[in-house]
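The material for today's practical consists of a large collection of protein records. Backbone structure tokens are a discrete shorthand for how the chain folds in space. An example says more than a description, so a record of this kind follows:
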Amino acid sequence: MKNPWTKKNPFMSMWLSGANAVAGSVRGHATAAAKRETATAVRRGNKQIADFWTSALTPPKPARRKKRR
């Protein structure tokens, strides 16, 4: 007698194929979002570094004086 647990189940195969497709799509969207967030963080960090060194190497602007009436 054959073992019924080793018999192929076409409905489970279709269900697992669909679940795998959904999981792959979700994984792709999550990876893309993470890459976008990383790129944004790196760009902001580089801008902060550039702004810091630009302001550090330029002389300070003179303070504006209030006009007297």
About this structure: Residues 10-57 form the longest helix (48 residues). The CA atoms of residues 16 and 47 lie 46 Å apart.
